[in-house]
Specification:
The protein has helices at residues 17-20, 23-29, 93-100, 137-143, and strands at 9-11, 34-38, 48-51, 55-58, 61-63, 74-78, 81-85, 106-112, 127-131. The chain is α/β, with parallel strands linked by helices.
Length: 159
């Protein structure tokens, strides 16, 4: 269990209500919360860090930078390679993977794959966890049964 008051930083992929809806309540519990957002993010505040270009947030943790003027993805280095965590993939999975690959070899993709049908982009990944707004989960699961991992709120994924 994660207690809200233990959270020091939040990474927001993009400014859609279903991705930011809990932030106001979290700020009530943790008013000094640091929030990393893409540059196009609409809200303002002293605790907001706007990101335009790719940047290292912490050791072995980066933002792709804002892609296509709407969304950023989180990139985390693990022993097996890079894990890319996206919101909805509005900029396109190819663009996200290219942006992330500047930090090393991408091992896994976790997140929403909104409108995604370029299934061959997943062939070099070892783990694919389509979530949220992915329309073609069954096709991804059929094409990549050994790479597919079911996602969802509260699910624990071994990386």
């Amino acid at each position: 269990d994660i207690k809200p008051e233990s959270i020091d930083e939040v990474f927001i992929s993009h400014d859609h209500w279903d991705h930011v809806g809990g932030v106001p309540d979290l700020l009530k519990v943790k008013p000094d919360l640091k929030i990393y957002v893409p540059e196009s993010y609409g809200s303002k505040g002293n605790n907001i860090v706007r990101i335009k270009e790719s940047i290292e947030i912490h050791e072995n943790m980066w933002s792709t930078g804002e892609l296509s003027g709407i969304e950023q993805s989180l990139v985390v280095k693990t022993e097996r390679g890079l894990v890319v965590i996206d919101g909805c993939s509005h900029p396109g999975v190819g663009n996200i993977l290219r942006a992330a690959s500047q930090f090393g070899r991408v091992y896994a993709l976790i997140g929403g794959l909104h409108g995604f049908r370029e299934f061959d982009l997943l062939k070099d990944l070892e783990l694919v966890c389509p979530c949220h707004c992915t329309q073609h989960i069954s096709e991804i699961k059929r094409l990549y049964p050994d790479k597919y991992v079911e996602g969802g709120v509260g699910r624990i994924i071994e990386l």
